[in-house]
Amino acid sequence: MAFIKEESEDVKIEETFTVKQEDLQEQTDIIEENKGSKDEEHHVKIEEKTHLETDDILKRRNKNRFTCTQCGKSLGRKDNLKIHMMIHTGEKPFACTQCGKSFIRSSHLNEHMRIHTGEKPFTCTQCGKSFSCSSHLKQHMMIHTGEKPFACTQCGKSFSRSSNLNHHMRIHTGQKPFTCTQCRKKVQQQIFSHGI
Hints:
This protein is an alpha+beta fold. It has six helices and 13 strands. The strands form six sheets. Strands 3-4-5 form a three-stranded antiparallel beta sheet. The chain is extended.
């Protein structure tokens, strides 16, 4: 795909550059995955409402923004806000015919179906390992590249996953969010048994 840049009336400056189609697709996939996972992680189901009832609580903010009246999230399109509202209503219209698990987006159902089919279309070019999801391949590639984008602000130690950084931060904060079910002692990570 090539783009040409033009400027002013008398002067025409042309710069041609290309963007690989697979780079565009990867960025699109990453954006879609992040949208879905963040929406599901950071919101809780507040009450049951039908799809039609959500229209009543859609609120338009500014000229081109739509705001969720439940959590204040602002989106650029009304359709995206309707999809977002499903997080609050609990509506999941796309159901797996194999196991019954339901999803907000059809793309999430399609990804889920790979569990049942065993399909793993994303393959590592370095070692040949295959994955059912492009984000899992991206995470795996960090093993080969050594990329660790999540750094501790206290000691500088880096991690490939944000969850590992969050766990590490407990060392500095002293936070102990879990309680042993056997001895009731507070601990930094979840344990299942003392191994006695």
